[in-house]
Design goal:
By secondary structure, this protein is an alpha/beta fold. The chain has an eight-stranded mixed sheet, with helices on both faces. A six-stranded parallel sheet has the order 9-14-13-10-12-11, with helices on both faces. The protein has a two-stranded antiparallel sheet with strand order 15-16. Helix 4 runs parallel beside helix 5 and helix 17 runs antiparallel to helix 18.
């Protein structure tokens, strides 16, 4: 590969130097906005759609009935009728062969209406929930578009450019594109940060018709002259709302400035906020707007949403009880979403010490480790994935059955994208959410999402709105409403922290307290130190972890609270967790050490006779025994 240096790059564009990955300056500052003269540009064709006779015969009433049944809303002029069967799209024979191999029965709603629009050469905006089949909605028309263009020549850039917000989404789009492009003898590549640049540059220099890219890495290559967008006539912005959330708007505008203005542009989004609308107005011309589902913010109706109103200190206990139930299911693949990288590492470490087959993924992991963790999760070797929002969009694993929002996200849009990791395509799934006083600002939006999806609403959420509207102190109202048995006197209430009407802690002078400021730092700086006053205190805690008593869920009192007693298993260790007695809970008959309960096998050797440290129904394990757990490196501890 060309390492840069002096002289004019063979691909044109800007001059300059090696791909050193500059650390300063604005991304794309070397790229200048091109002044296009449409009369001098080579002509190209973008309307290839011919209505199938079955579509022509379809009446207006039949079209409206189909759109109504699929919750399809269309805006714009000259929108063609939807197709109902694959053969009505008139795709090439080799494309149809791949569709048949994948055993698709009929197009999804976004495909049925989106394919005729895209094949007609029109600009379009597609707003649809995750898992609705939007990737094929733009990839198959892209293949038809490319087949009608002149062949690439040496030095030409891609004809179809797909911009995606994350590496994971870009890789998944590439997997789909590779299967169909091979059948059509086209070449595709995926370029993203965190991976070596050399192989990506070689793919671009050899010529590819389809390029799937994240904005940052593409701008690096454009500035270094390693590719160009002179031949690009089909542009796709996938998950445009997410790219704006991540601050990619300046990069997107720089990239679009390098593409001829008479291109065909398709924008896809799960939500339709005003920022995305403005982007559509700037980049698209006389576009058709297709909306699948409710016009307002909506979640997948195939997902059962369960909201648990609780305090932060209760989350760990509730998570463990949930995982006990989930792991007894045959389909138990679960994603647990947390807010910060620090919490992701801490929760992963804790769960693995307790024997749970969990792995963690967040933005600070290397690309190699992220790929490996996702591969282990997809193949079921580690059915529990603990993730930050880096995986909340674009993570396409077909058989995820459960999503747990350990930390509630910052917006309802993120909530919808998180729970959208389950119930892909037409499948069903379950989403559990822990909602705490710190999330009170989101309560109205959450209730709106639940109502739109016809979900049961926890009465405690409604009580929160009432208390908030009545002007009560949020923290005190919360405790009175949901924990009356713990409120014994007005003295207790006076000891509670004061909060403003938005749910933020206030000091005596009305300012945000240091705790609130610490929470804000935790959100943006990968978390706090977990309550340890010094590194030595944390180190001592880690060393004595096996000797610490753990809460047991064996006996349940009449009022529903779990007591601290459990089975003794013939040993003096009351709850089966203290020191060497920890093997009573997870590795009966092997007192070699408390930390080995999850590394050699999944849940224990005498699993048929043990209750896993819990006085409840035993898991339904196959007769052959659980597969041994892979050796996964523990996340590094953090220094002061």
């Amino acid at each position: 590969a060309d390492g840069g240096g002096s002289g004019t790059p063979r691909f044109g564009g800007s001059r300059g130097g090696p791909l050193s990955g500059k650390k300063f300056g604005n991304p794309g500052e070397k790229l200048t906005k091109k002044k296009w003269n449409l009369d001098e540009l080579p002509k190209f064709e973008k309307n290839f759609y011919q209505e199938h006779p079955d579509v022509v015969r379809r009446t207006v009433q039949e079209v409206e009935q189909y759109r109504s049944s699929k919750e399809v809303t269309v805006r714009g002029h000259n929108c063609p009728k939807p197709i109902i069967n694959f053969y009505e799209a008139n795709f090439p024979a080799n494309v149809m062969e791949v569709i048949q191999r994948q055993n698709f029965t009929e197009p999804t709603a976004i495909q049925a209406q989106g394919w005729p629009v895209a094949l007609s050469g029109l600009d379009m905006v597609g707003v649809a929930q995750t898992g609705s089949g939007k990737t094929l909605s733009y990839l198959l028309p892209a293949i038809v578009h490319i087949n009608h263009q002149p062949f690439l020549e040496r030095g030409d850039g891609p004809i179809c450019l797909v911009l995606a917000p994350t590496r994971e989404l870009a890789q998944q789009v590439q997997q789909v594109a590779a299967e169909y492009s091979r059948a059509c003898r086209l070449k595709s590549t995926c370029i993203y940060g965190g991976a070596p640049k050399g192989p990506q540059i070689r793919d671009l220099e050899r010529g590819v018709e389809i390029c799937i890219a994240t904005p940052g890495r593409l701008i690096d290559f454009l500035e270094a002259g390693k590719t160009n967008l002179r031949r690009c006539t089909y542009l796709v912005l996938d998950e445009a709302d997410r790219m704006l959330d991540m601050g990619f708007e300046p990069q997107i505008r720089k990239i679009v400035d390098q593409i001829r203005p008479d291109r065909q542009t398709l924008m896809w989004s799960a939500t339709w906020p005003k920022e995305v609308r403005q982007l559509a107005e700037d980049f698209l011309k006389e576009y058709v707007h297709i909306n699948i589902g409710a016009l307002e913010l909506s979640a997948n109706h195939n997902i059962l949403q369960i909201v648990d109103v609780c305090h932060d200190v209760e989350k760990d206990d509730k998570l463990i009880r949930l995982m006990e139930e989930i792991m007894s299911e045959k389909e138990n693949k679960t994603i647990v979403f947390v807010e910060t990288k620090r919490r992701c590492d801490d929760l992963t470490r804790k769960m693995r010490r307790d024997g749970w087959p969990a792995m963690g993924i967040h933005g600070d992991k290397s690309q190699q480790e992220r790929d490996w963790v996702l591969n282990e999760f997809k193949h079921g070797k580690a059915p529990i994935l603990i993730a930050t929002d880096v995986a909340s969009r674009g993570l396409d694993v077909e058989d995820v059955k459960f999503v747990i929002n350990y930390d509630y996200p910052n917006s309802s849009e993120d909530y919808i994208h998180r729970i959208g990791r389950t119930a892909r395509s037409t499948k069903t799934g379950t989403a559990y959410t822990f909602f705490t006083p710190n999330n009170i600002k989101q309560v109205n939006d959450l209730i709106s999402v639940l109502r739109e999806a016809n979900q049961a609403i926890n009465p405690k959420l409604l009580q929160l709105i009432e208390d908030r509207g009545s002007g009560k102190c949020c923290c005190q109202a919360w405790c009175i409403a949901f924990f009356p048995e713990q409120i014994g006197s007005s003295i207790y209430l006076s000891s509670l922290p004061k909060m403003d009407m938005e749910g933020s802690l206030l000091g005596s002078s009305g300012d945000l307290t240091s705790r609130s400021r610490g929470d804000r730092r935790d959100r943006y700086s990968a978390g706090k130190r977990g309550g340890f006053s010094s590194f030595r205190e944390r180190e001592n805690f880690e060393r004595t972890y096996g000797a610490l008593g753990k809460r047991d869920f064996g006996a349940k009192a009449q009022n529903g609270a779990y007591t601290a007693q459990s089975f003794s298993n013939g040993t003096p260790f009351g709850n089966g967790f203290a020191a060497a007695g920890m093997q009573a809970g997870f590795r009966a008959g092997n007192p070699a050490g408390a930390y080995q309960n999850g590394y050699d096998q999944q849940y224990g050797s005498n699993i048929a006779n043990m209750h896993n440290g819990m006085n409840q129904q035993q898991y339904a394990y196959p007769a052959t025994g659980a597969a041994p757990m892979i050796g996964y490196p523990m996340p590094a501890s953090y220094s002061q």
